[in-house]
Amino acid sequence: GIQVEQSPPDLILQEGANSTLRCNFSDSVNNLQWFHQNPWGQLINLFYIPSGTKQNGRLSATTVATERYSLLYISSSQTTDSGVYFCAVSASGSRLTFGEGTQLTVNP
Amino acid sequence: DSGVTQTPKHLITATGQRVTLRCSPRSGDLSVYWYQQSLDQGLQFLIQYYNGEERAKGNILERFSAQQFPDLHSELNLSSLELGDSALYFCASSVHTGTGYEQYFGPGTRLTVT
Questions:
Q1: Nearest to A69 by CA among A9, A97, A29
Q2: CA pair distance B92, B29, nearest whole angstrom
Q3: What was the pLDDT predicted at B41?
Q4: What is the enclosing helix (H) or strand (E) of A12?
Q5: How far apart are CA A74 and CA A72, in angstroms?
Q6: Which residues partner with A9 through β-bridges?
Q7: B43 and A86: CB-CB below 8 Å?
Q8: CA A51 → CA A28, A32, A43, A105, B58, distances in Å?
Q9: How far, in Å, CA of A41 to CA of A2, rounded?
Protein backbone atom coordinates (compact mmCIF):
# COMPACT_ATOMS: atom_id res chain seq x y z
CA GLY A 1 0.00 0.00 0.00
CA ILE A 2 0.86 3.66 -0.13
CA GLN A 3 3.44 4.93 2.34
CA VAL A 4 3.13 8.43 3.78
CA GLU A 5 6.01 10.17 5.54
CA GLN A 6 5.67 13.47 7.35
CA SER A 7 8.42 15.74 8.56
CA PRO A 8 9.41 17.06 10.95
CA PRO A 9 7.84 14.83 13.61
CA ASP A 10 7.98 17.64 16.16
CA LEU A 11 8.15 21.38 15.82
CA ILE A 12 8.31 24.05 18.51
CA LEU A 13 7.77 27.69 17.53
CA GLN A 14 7.37 31.06 19.12
CA GLU A 15 4.14 32.86 18.40
CA GLY A 16 4.43 34.82 15.17
CA ALA A 17 6.90 32.47 13.48
CA ASN A 18 6.34 30.77 10.13
CA SER A 19 6.69 27.06 9.44
CA THR A 20 6.60 24.49 6.66
CA LEU A 21 5.40 20.92 7.12
CA ARG A 22 6.17 18.29 4.51
CA CYS A 23 4.35 15.15 3.36
CA ASN A 24 5.94 12.61 1.00
CA PHE A 25 3.93 9.78 -0.48
CA SER A 26 5.06 6.69 -2.33
CA ASP A 27 2.55 6.38 -5.18
CA SER A 28 0.14 8.34 -7.35
CA VAL A 29 -2.89 9.60 -5.46
CA ASN A 30 -6.23 11.10 -6.36
CA ASN A 31 -6.91 12.47 -2.90
CA LEU A 32 -4.66 14.33 -0.49
CA GLN A 33 -5.97 16.02 2.62
CA TRP A 34 -4.37 17.97 5.44
CA PHE A 35 -5.96 17.80 8.89
CA HIS A 36 -5.35 19.50 12.21
CA GLN A 37 -6.02 17.41 15.29
CA ASN A 38 -6.68 19.77 18.16
CA PRO A 39 -5.94 19.00 21.82
CA TRP A 40 -9.50 17.67 22.22
CA GLY A 41 -8.87 15.05 19.55
CA GLN A 42 -11.01 16.53 16.79
CA LEU A 43 -9.78 16.13 13.22
CA ILE A 44 -10.38 19.39 11.41
CA ASN A 45 -10.19 19.60 7.63
CA LEU A 46 -7.64 22.11 6.45
CA PHE A 47 -7.21 21.38 2.76
CA TYR A 48 -8.33 18.95 0.10
CA ILE A 49 -5.44 19.30 -2.33
CA PRO A 50 -4.53 16.39 -4.64
CA SER A 51 -2.64 18.90 -6.78
CA GLY A 52 -1.96 22.61 -7.03
CA THR A 53 -1.93 25.37 -4.44
CA LYS A 54 -4.61 26.64 -2.08
CA GLN A 55 -4.70 29.31 0.58
CA ASN A 56 -6.99 29.82 3.55
CA GLY A 57 -6.06 32.75 5.76
CA ARG A 58 -2.68 32.17 7.37
CA LEU A 59 -2.49 28.64 6.00
CA SER A 60 -1.60 27.54 2.52
CA ALA A 61 -0.76 24.22 0.90
CA THR A 62 0.94 23.04 -2.26
CA THR A 63 0.91 19.56 -3.74
CA VAL A 64 3.30 18.56 -6.52
CA ALA A 65 1.69 15.31 -7.56
CA THR A 66 4.34 14.42 -10.15
CA GLU A 67 7.03 14.57 -7.45
CA ARG A 68 4.80 12.99 -4.78
CA TYR A 69 4.96 15.57 -2.04
CA SER A 70 2.84 18.20 -0.40
CA LEU A 71 3.74 21.16 1.78
CA LEU A 72 1.65 22.92 4.41
CA TYR A 73 2.67 26.49 5.27
CA ILE A 74 1.64 28.17 8.49
CA SER A 75 2.40 31.86 8.74
CA SER A 76 2.31 34.12 11.81
CA SER A 77 1.60 31.13 14.03
CA GLN A 78 -0.68 31.45 17.04
CA THR A 79 -0.96 29.33 20.18
CA THR A 80 -4.25 27.98 18.86
CA ASP A 81 -2.33 26.41 15.95
CA SER A 82 -0.85 23.89 18.39
CA GLY A 83 -1.76 20.27 17.84
CA VAL A 84 -0.95 17.50 15.42
CA TYR A 85 -1.03 18.04 11.67
CA PHE A 86 -1.80 14.99 9.54
CA CYS A 87 -1.41 14.41 5.86
CA ALA A 88 -3.63 11.65 4.41
CA VAL A 89 -3.79 10.24 0.91
CA SER A 90 -5.87 7.87 -1.15
CA ALA A 91 -5.21 6.22 -4.49
CA SER A 92 -8.60 4.62 -4.82
CA GLY A 93 -11.03 7.33 -3.81
CA SER A 94 -11.72 5.22 -0.77
CA ARG A 95 -9.62 4.66 2.34
CA LEU A 96 -7.27 7.37 3.52
CA THR A 97 -3.74 6.41 4.54
CA PHE A 98 -2.41 8.75 7.19
CA GLY A 99 1.11 9.83 7.96
CA GLU A 100 2.35 9.80 11.54
CA GLY A 101 1.78 13.50 11.90
CA THR A 102 3.75 16.57 12.93
CA GLN A 103 3.31 17.66 16.55
CA LEU A 104 3.32 21.46 16.55
CA THR A 105 3.72 23.47 19.73
CA VAL A 106 3.40 27.24 19.54
CA ASN A 107 4.61 29.05 22.64
CA PRO A 108 3.40 32.52 23.62
CA ASP B 1 -18.66 21.20 13.09
CA SER B 2 -18.14 18.68 10.28
CA GLY B 3 -21.76 17.53 10.22
CA VAL B 4 -20.76 13.96 11.08
CA THR B 5 -22.10 12.86 14.46
CA GLN B 6 -20.84 10.08 16.70
CA THR B 7 -22.14 8.65 19.95
CA PRO B 8 -21.14 8.12 22.63
CA LYS B 9 -18.21 10.51 23.12
CA HIS B 10 -16.63 8.37 25.79
CA LEU B 11 -17.01 4.71 26.67
CA ILE B 12 -15.36 2.83 29.51
CA THR B 13 -15.81 -0.90 29.66
CA ALA B 14 -14.11 -4.07 30.84
CA THR B 15 -12.16 -6.70 28.95
CA GLY B 16 -14.33 -9.34 27.34
CA GLN B 17 -17.29 -7.00 26.90
CA ARG B 18 -19.04 -5.88 23.72
CA VAL B 19 -19.82 -2.28 22.70
CA THR B 20 -21.54 -0.52 19.83
CA LEU B 21 -20.40 2.80 18.41
CA ARG B 22 -22.81 4.84 16.33
CA CYS B 23 -22.25 7.28 13.49
CA SER B 24 -24.49 9.47 11.35
CA PRO B 25 -22.93 10.84 8.15
CA ARG B 26 -23.40 14.35 6.81
CA SER B 27 -26.74 14.92 5.16
CA GLY B 28 -26.67 13.49 1.64
CA ASP B 29 -23.40 11.56 2.04
CA LEU B 30 -23.78 7.89 1.16
CA SER B 31 -20.36 6.66 2.31
CA VAL B 32 -19.30 5.99 5.87
CA TYR B 33 -15.73 5.17 6.88
CA TRP B 34 -14.45 3.92 10.23
CA TYR B 35 -10.94 4.62 11.49
CA GLN B 36 -9.08 3.70 14.67
CA GLN B 37 -6.46 5.95 16.28
CA SER B 38 -4.24 4.25 18.84
CA LEU B 39 -0.93 5.30 20.31
CA ASP B 40 1.03 2.44 18.76
CA GLN B 41 -0.73 2.10 15.38
CA GLY B 42 -1.58 5.69 14.53
CA LEU B 43 -4.68 6.43 12.45
CA GLN B 44 -5.79 3.34 10.55
CA PHE B 45 -8.67 2.66 8.19
CA LEU B 46 -11.01 -0.09 9.33
CA ILE B 47 -13.93 -0.35 6.91
CA GLN B 48 -16.08 1.60 4.44
CA TYR B 49 -19.77 1.30 3.62
CA TYR B 50 -21.52 2.87 0.68
CA ASN B 51 -25.32 3.07 0.64
CA GLY B 52 -25.64 0.01 2.86
CA GLU B 53 -23.04 -2.16 1.17
CA GLU B 54 -19.52 -2.92 2.35
CA ARG B 55 -17.16 -1.17 -0.09
CA ALA B 56 -13.64 -1.61 1.33
CA LYS B 57 -12.01 -3.35 4.24
CA GLY B 58 -8.80 -2.44 6.02
CA ASN B 59 -7.12 -3.66 9.16
CA ILE B 60 -10.31 -4.63 10.91
CA LEU B 61 -10.14 -7.46 13.43
CA GLU B 62 -12.53 -10.39 13.17
CA ARG B 63 -13.90 -9.41 16.60
CA PHE B 64 -15.08 -6.15 15.03
CA SER B 65 -18.01 -5.79 12.64
CA ALA B 66 -19.94 -2.93 11.12
CA GLN B 67 -23.09 -2.24 9.20
CA GLN B 68 -24.85 0.66 7.53
CA PHE B 69 -28.60 0.96 7.85
CA PRO B 70 -31.21 2.18 5.31
CA ASP B 71 -31.22 5.64 6.94
CA LEU B 72 -27.42 5.64 6.28
CA HIS B 73 -26.31 5.70 9.89
CA SER B 74 -23.64 3.14 10.72
CA GLU B 75 -22.69 1.10 13.75
CA LEU B 76 -19.34 -0.41 14.63
CA ASN B 77 -19.56 -3.40 16.96
CA LEU B 78 -16.52 -4.36 19.01
CA SER B 79 -16.65 -7.65 20.89
CA SER B 80 -14.45 -9.68 23.24
CA LEU B 81 -12.68 -6.43 24.03
CA GLU B 82 -9.00 -6.43 24.94
CA LEU B 83 -6.89 -3.75 26.59
CA GLY B 84 -5.28 -3.05 23.22
CA ASP B 85 -8.63 -2.03 21.74
CA SER B 86 -8.51 1.17 23.78
CA ALA B 87 -8.39 3.90 21.16
CA LEU B 88 -10.17 6.82 19.57
CA TYR B 89 -12.61 5.58 16.94
CA PHE B 90 -13.55 7.98 14.17
CA CYS B 91 -16.30 7.88 11.64
CA ALA B 92 -16.10 9.89 8.42
CA SER B 93 -18.30 10.57 5.43
CA SER B 94 -17.28 11.92 2.05
CA VAL B 95 -18.44 14.40 -0.54
CA HIS B 96 -17.56 14.28 -4.20
CA THR B 97 -15.54 17.33 -5.18
CA GLY B 98 -15.67 16.84 -8.94
CA THR B 99 -12.20 15.32 -9.00
CA GLY B 100 -12.34 13.02 -6.00
CA TYR B 101 -13.83 12.53 -2.56
CA GLU B 102 -13.11 14.73 0.47
CA GLN B 103 -13.64 13.06 3.82
CA TYR B 104 -15.05 14.80 6.89
CA PHE B 105 -14.57 13.30 10.32
CA GLY B 106 -16.83 13.11 13.32
CA PRO B 107 -15.65 14.04 16.83
CA GLY B 108 -14.75 10.44 17.66
CA THR B 109 -15.61 7.97 20.39
CA ARG B 110 -12.90 7.46 22.99
CA LEU B 111 -12.98 3.83 24.13
CA THR B 112 -11.18 2.78 27.27
CA VAL B 113 -10.99 -0.93 28.06
CA THR B 114 -10.02 -1.70 31.66
A1: A29
A2: 10
A3: 85
A4: strand A10-14
A5: 7
A6: none
A7: yes
A8: 11, 8, 21, 28, 26
A9: 25
Digitized pLDDT (tens) for each residue of chain A, 108 residues in all: 899 999 999 999 999 999 999 999 999 998 999 999 998 999 999 999 999 999 999 999 999 999 999 999 999 999 999 999 999 999 877 899 999 999 999 999
Q: How far is A6 from chain B (nearest CA, A)?
A: 13
A 44-103 residues inside an 8 A Cβ radius of B = 44-45, 48, 50, 86, 88, 90, 92-98, 100-101
Q: Is the dihedral of CA A8, A10, A12, A17 positive or negative?
A: positive
Q: How far is B101 from chain A (nearest CA, A)?
A: 6
Tell me if residue B19 falls in helix, strand or coil: strand
pLDDT (tens digit, 9 = 90+) per residue, B50-82?
A: 999 999 999 899 999 999 999 999 999 999 999
- Return the pLDDT at B39: 86
Closest in B55, B56, B100 to A31, CB measured: B100
Contacts with A92 from chain B: Cβ below 8 Å: 56
Label the pairing between strands B101-105 and B87-96.
Answer: antiparallel
Instruction: Tell me which of B99 and B106 has the higher pLDDT.
Output: B106
Count, residues in chain A: 108
Contact between residue A32 and residue A99 where contact means Cβ atoms under 8 Å apart: no
Angular region, B5: left φ>0, alpha ψ -120 to 50, beta rest: beta
Q: Is A39 exposed, middle or buried (0-12, 13-18, 19+ CB in 10 A)?
A: exposed
